[in-house]
Amino acid sequence: MSESESPPAKRQRTDDTEVMRSDIWKADGSVVLQAGNTQFRVHWSVLAENSSVFSDMQGLPQPSDQPTVEGCSIVELSDDPDDIKFLLKALYIPSFHCQDKLPFPVVRAFVKIGRKYEFKYLYDSAVKRLMTEFPTTLKEYDAFRAAWQTMEGYPGLTRDIASLANENKLLTVLPAAYYSLSMHTASKLLTQIQRRDSTMVASLPTIDLCRCAVGREEAFKTQFQPGFTLGWIRKWDFADLCLDSMQCQASRQALLVYCMDNYLRANLITPQWPVLKRFQFCQNCLKMIHDSIVAGRKKGWEQLPLLFDLPPWNELKNGD
After folding, report:
1. I need a labelling partner for 78 at 20 to 30 A (CA). Which of 22, 154, 186, 267 fits?
2. Domains plus CATH for the chain?
3. Do β-strands 31-35 and 72-77 pair in parallel, antiparallel, or remain unpaired?
4. Residue 314: how many CA atoms within 13 Å on its side-chain side?
5. Model-level pTM?
6. Which residues sit opposite 72 in a β-bridge?
7. What residue stretches are annotated with the BTB domain (predicted)?
8. Mean pLDDT of the residues in the chain
9. HSE on the CB side for 50, CA within 13 Å?
10. Cα(14)–Cα(37) distance, integer angstroms
11. 11 pairs with which residues across the strands?
12. pLDDT exceeds 60 at position 9
């Protein structure tokens, strides 16, 4: 669809409210969306093709006294103008939402507006980005744990994602997101984080904070239980195959002290390989420790949602 040049933004009066014309203003548009004091002139056909809500809305009879702008009906929305702007940019400029990494406010807009007005494609694409960062399998978690893959990172992003997921019932995102947060100390969880734009701080809503605090405690206790990641430290079952029992027992004791001094946080599914290099275990014990950690991480992942008072993995769903 061709797009003529947008006229410069200008102000007009509607019911004594000062209104700003956005830079998304299609000269041949057939409807004006108004969010806050910002108006966007777009096409009913574009909205209706992508949203079942707008498709239904298009067919409703319009009151004869409804205010118009340049002959176009005005549809007032209760949403943030920036969210509507991101939505419309995605509809008119496909490359906008196909970028490898998007700013979080854009992803948030796709989730909120996509869910509210049933822009299914944009909603699904945003949820996919969130699930890439905080997946539902241990294999995917290990593959993408090192860096942000689909969003531009900033301090506090994990908190913002957890809040967004909880507000919009994206339950599959929450276990890994909560676990990531629970790896921090309790004091850090309670501290607000300044975002890079210095205009806002990222903090956790009460429900997310409570789940992280309780889950952190549960994960810390669980990781030392038999069969879990660090359970082998408490119950040493490798004596029969050990090549140097005195050395390995001493290393085990030293590692236990190290964990208690440095791991007063959740490490239920975190690999422990770098730490093991600090201690002198024989090759046989080292292999059995490795196998125990691998099995323990899998078991820990299976239990992860339950630690944060969520349903098990196979019952977690997204949406209402």
Report:
1. 154
2. 11-93 (3.30.710.10), 123-220 (no CATH), 223-300 (no CATH)
3. parallel
4. 1
5. 0.87
6. 69
7. 29-92
8. 87
9. 21
10. 10
11. 20
12. no
The pLDDT tens digits of the residues spanning 76-114 come to 999 999 999 999 999 999 899 999 999 999 999 999 999
Three state DSSP letters for the chain: CCCCCCCCCCEEEECCEEEEEEEEECCCCCEEEEECCEEEEECHHHHHHHCHHHHHHHCCCCCCCCCEECCEEEEEECCCHHHHHHHHHHHHCHHHHCCCCECHHHHHHHHHHHHHHCCHHHHHHHHHHHHHHCCCCHHHHHHHCCCCCCECCCCCHHHHHHHHHHHCCEHHHHHHHHHHHHCCCHHHHHCCEECCCCCCEECCCHHHHHHHHHHHHHHHHHCCCCCCCCHHHHCCCCHHHCCCHHHHHHHHHHHHHHHHHHCCCCCCCCCCHHHHCCCCCCHHHHHHHHHHHHHHHHHHHHHHHHHCCCCCHHHCCECC
CA distance 296 to 300: 6
